[in-house]
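Archive record
______________

***
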Amino acid sequence: MKVLIIDDDEDSRSIARLSLESLANATVIEASGGQEGFDLAKIDKPDVILLDLLMPNLDGRATFHLLRSNANTATIPIIFLTIKGIFDEFDELKANSTVLVDLIVKPFDPTFLAQQIQRILI
């Protein structure tokens, strides 16, 4: 499984990367912001994207719409990472998407992160 983590928080990215690499033998790509994540997604075509909701500049919502508007990234499942839980637009984004959209609440348990992702992707 190839996972792209788009999160401005370096600690969150590191914890997720270490968890996924060691417990799920995943290949992990990291981006510290929305534009960088979008650019990497176009090139690396991950199996799933973990997308932080709250980031400066291009936040998770804007990044989501950018990813969905590009033919190379439109079909990649996206799992939002958020400290807020369900956010106002989540149900609408999920309902209007033909591709998987879900969320994992921060702080996540690194020992179960890979299992959570795999359960969501099934």
